[in-house]
Write a structure and sequence with these properties.
single chain; about 900 residues; alpha+beta; Jelly Rolls; Leucine-rich repeat, LRR (right-handed beta-alpha superhelix); 13-stranded mixed β-sheet; 6-stranded mixed β-sheet; 46 strands; elongated
């Protein structure tokens, strides 16, 4: 018998095979090594299925999520035409990944079978589709084609650990379900490949049969053999015999090997582009006479495969390819009798598998131990099951891991997470590109107690977010020991003590983004030693008193003068805030600014100084430069109009100075400066995504009031981040509205009236204000300035830079890196879409500012719907401030 030994392998019966034949059925009879899970059955379930004598138990100990369902509730459990293990199921309506952890024998070969039956259990009549992962690799996509279909998938796999992690992944096409999960140990000498797993395509039993399929107890490995009527086959009438068929290591059931069919060709239509292995099982079932012979060769796509083959009477011979068959749409196996053969070729059984490269990665054990302790400490119950980092495409919510053979946890966001809805059209591309960047930290988890010491074991952490919880105690020193930590967010807790000096120094050096606000009892200064020596305190106090005594006399002398100034300030304040006469003299400007002592900024219209009225009310005084001035009549008319424009998102103009050589505007003071300062790389604070959404909405509502609620409408003409100011509560207000018209300055290049798409801003219309606001939206989500300078010195407008990246699906590259892990997918996607709409080249295509407000409210709601808020809900039903019936400006 000849063969191409490099292309196929043959298994003959032997003494060893006979010995194993005698032993393994005995082991299989008690189902040694079998794991049979009835998914969705009650936790204490244990029974023997009468159709196959297999013992099943509940899957509850192997999975920590899911909902138990039953098809019996819709069909009648006693009359259901399915075996018992298929009458219940477990569905997974919550979370993207839900995983089974099954303990097995490391290094052993297993047949793993998962079965699924929908049977319209939920009454929705919507067939689901979902993915099944083993370790880090996609095993199969389960795609139902019929409500009553009972699909199952099989994998032959050698385990590389003592535990198998099998995860069901929600891909957005219905709720994943599973009916049964089975593990069957195989001999490692069977189904051999080069370190690769095999997924079953088909397994056939040829010849006449009394049943549609055979499995355990006929098959000691519990393979399911389906009878087939292949075109052109003729069942062979077997010789009458009661003897068993002699087995080889594959242990094909005797009842399968006692039937055979003559065959000329077997065609195999492959369902994917994988490589394939076939296993053909032969046994002569006719006791041949001396003048009879059955000898044939096998070809594959007209190329020699194996031969000559002479089946032995009641003895199993298995033929398979040693090397995988290349991917092809059609594989044709032909069985050709030799010239001296008197009987046609036969075949008893046929198996087809396609190659699956299953990679069983495991997260670094130290990180697993640490995150498990953290889960236990804080009682976290979300989808934290299975391996934390595997599959690497779907790690635990709130984690991101390194790309390594033993992945390490590098990001930890201990907050509540909700999966984002996948948007349609080209927005889907944005979602797919961003999901590896954004980690859905939307709201607080209600964690209590001190910061867990187990976090210190996650030595590769780059980002740690424990914000908006109820954590107490001092900041542990181990937070200073993470070599790769780049972002530490502890905002909104009840932490006490002081921030470790090392962290403060790293934050000042900008090697660490540190957010520790909203912790009232936490000191954030480098000098926080509250345990001063009592004697030192006395000495210092004595020294201070000694120094103050000589000064006291001078102070008394100056007191009267200061009271006079305060009286003057009070009169100015009453005139500005309580009357309609809001014009002041330049001498009064000098009083409230202390002779222009403190400059707090400089804009296109002049310098801005800090002013103080009585009761320590602060104001901002803008002195207009010579190039910004116009006639007294026009200035006064326009200024008087602006002083009666009131809205919570507009910086109030509370007074003005109109003298020949000195013109000034007096505004309410905004403690936190302008938005551009907070977005710049030099800012020591990082605006959160929630804050950026609120700032965008505040600014849009202010602009909406100017456009649609003032009569006549007011165009801003100079909408930009430096004209959006923030008060002490981080509420955004628009400043300098209308000034570009009142104080036109030829040198203000940012007001150039060039077409949209070029550098700078555009011609003054409502839609040009909307275009400028779209630029503000891009600055908010990217953190970049309007004009971006490359490393080579080239300049590009932010719109020209961002639009192509978004359209190409590379939107993750435009998101501000300081928001990494802190931005919510759906709201960010809609935010980008809105920015694109606002900056369309044709003004008619741009939305009205009222539509922009509505869309920003939706963005905010997307984020808030995934947030467990500890405060009162934000009220979007605001009303405009009344300014009197005699005003030329009034709300719509």
């Amino acid at each position: 018998m000849g063969a191409s030994t490099h292309f196929f392998s043959v298994f003959f019966p032997s003494a060893l095979a006979l010995t194993l034949t005698l032993l393994l059925p005995l082991q299989a009879s008690d189902q040694s090594g079998f794991i049979s899970l009835d998914c969705g059955s009650p936790e204490d379930t244990m029974y023997t299925e009468i159709t196959n004598n297999i013992s099943y138990v509940s899957d509850a100990p192997f999975v920590k999520s899911g909902v138990s369902e039953s098809i019996g509730s819709r069909m009648g459990a006693d009359n259901a035409p399915f075996p018992r293990q298929m009458r219940s199921l477990r569905s997974f309506p919550q979370g993207i990944r839900n995983c089974y952890n099954v303990s097995i024998v490391n290094g052993s070969k297993y047949l793993i079978r998962a079965s699924f039956l929908y049977e319209n259990y939920d009454g929705l009549d919507m067939l689901p589709a979902f993915d099944i992962y083993i370790g880090n690799s996609l095993w199969e996509r389960v795609n139902f084609t019929d409500t009553h279909l009972e699909p199952s998938i099989e994998l032959i796999h050698i385990t590389s650990s003592n535990e198998v992690h099998m995860c069901l992944i929600n891909i957005g096409n219905g709720v994943p379900i599973i009916s049964s999960l089975e593990f069957r140990p195989l001999l490692n000498t069977t189904y051999q490949t080069v370190s690769r797993s095999l997924s079953l395509q088909s397994r056939f039993d040829f010849g006449l049969s009394d049943k549609e399929e055979y499995r355990y107890p006929y098959d000691v490995y519990d393979r399911i053999w389906s009878t087939v009527n292949y075109y052109g086959q003729e069942p062979v009438t077997a010789s009458a015999t009661t003897g068993a068929v002699e087995e080889n290591n594959y242990k094909v059931p005797s009842i399968v090997m006692k039937t055979a069919s003559t065959v000329k060709d077997i065609s195999l239509n492959t369902k994917n582009s994988s490589e394939y292995y076939v296993f053909m099982h032969f046994s002569e079932v006719v006791e041949l006479q001396p003048n009879q012979s059955r000898v044939f060769n096998i070809t594959h796509n007209e190329n020699f495969f194996y031969g000559p083959l002479i089946p032995s009477y009641l003895s199993t011979l298995t033929v398979s390819n040693k090397d995988p068959l290349n991917a092809s749409n059609l594989h044709l196996f032909s069985f050709i009798s030799t010239n001296n053969a008197t009987l046609p070729p036969i075949i008893n059984a046929f198996e087809v598998y396609y190659v699956k490269d299953i990679i069983e990665l495991e997260t670094n054990q130290g990180d697993v131990n640490a995150i498990t302790k953290i889960k236990s400490t804080y009682g976290i119950k979300r989808d934290w099951q299975g391996d934390p980092c595997v599959p690497m495409k779907y790690p635990w919510s709130g984690l991101n891991c390194s790309n390594a053979t033993a992945p390490r946890i590098i990001y930890l966001y201990v907050q509540v997470f909700y999966e984002a809805n996948i948007l349609k059209g080209w927005i889907t591309l944005i979602h797919e590109k961003m999901q590896n960047l954004v980690y859905r930290n939307l709201s607080a988890s209600g964690l209590t107690g001190e910061i867990s010491s187990y976090i210190s074991n996650l030595t590769m952490l780059r980002t740690l977010d424990l914000s908006h919880n109820e954590l107490t105690g001092e900041l542990p020193e181990f937070l200073t020991n993470f070599p790769n930590l780049r972002v530490l967010i502890l905002t909104g807790n009840k932490l006490t003590g002081s921030v470790p000096e090392v962290l403060m120094q790293r934050a000042e050096a900008k090697s660490l983004t540190l957010s520790v606000g909203e912790n009232p009892d936490l000191c954030t200064s480098l000098k926080c030693d509250n345990k001063k020596n009592k004697y030192l305190v006395l000495i210092i106090l004595s020294t201070i008193i000694a120094v103050l005594l000589p000064i006291l006399m001078v102070t008394l002398v100056l007191y009267k003068r200061r009271k006079q100034r305060e009286h003057l300030k009070r009169s100015i304040q009453e005139r500005l805030l309580k009357s309609k006469n809001q014009q002041v003299h330049y001498s009064e400007i000098l009083v409230i600014t202390d002779n222009l002592k403190t400059s707090i900024g400089e804009g296109g219209f002049g310098k801005v100084y800090l002013g103080v009225l009585s009761d320590k009310i602060q104001v901002a005084v803008k002195l207009l430069s010579a190039s910004s001035r116009q006639g007294t009549k026009e200035f006064k008319a326009e200024a008087e109009i602006l002083t009666i424009v009131h809205h919570r998102n507009l910086v109030s103009l509370i007074g003005y100075c109109d003298e020949a050589e000195n013109k000034a505007l007096i505004y309410e003071f905004m403690a936190n400066g302008n938005l551009r300062k907070h977005l710049s790389d030099s800012s020591t604070t990082v605006l959160s995504w929630k804050q950026r959404l609120q700032i965008a909405l505040d600014a849009a509502q202010g602009l909406e009031y100017l456009h649609n609620c003032c009569k006549p409408p007011i165009l801003h003409r100079d909408m930009k981040t430096s004209n959006i100011l923030l008060n002490e509560k981080m509420q955004a207000k628009i400043s300098d509205f209308g000034l570009s018209r009142i104080f036109a300055n030829e040198n203000d290049t940012h007001l150039a009236t060039r077409p949209a798409g070029t550098f700078g801003y555009v011609d003054p219309t409502k839609k040009s204000d909307v275009y400028s606001f779209g630029i503000v939206l891009f600055e908010l989500i990217t953190g970049k300035p309007v004009i971006i300078k490359s490393g080579t010195g080239n300049e590009i407008h932010i719109v020209d830079w961002a639009k192509p990246l978004i359209v190409e699906g590379n939107s993750q590259s435009i998101v501000d890196q300081r928001l990494e892990g802190c931005i919510e997918i759906c709201s960010a996607t809609k935010f980008m879409e809105l920015a694109l709409c606002c900056t369309l080249s044709t003004s008619a295509q741009r939305p009205d500012i009222s539509d922009v407000v509505k869309q920003l409210i939706k963005c905010q709601e997307m984020a808030q719907n995934r947030t467990t808020s500890h405060g009162p809900p934000i009220n979007h039903n605001f009303s405009y401030t009344s300014i009197g019936s005699d005003s030329i400006l009034s709300p719509r």
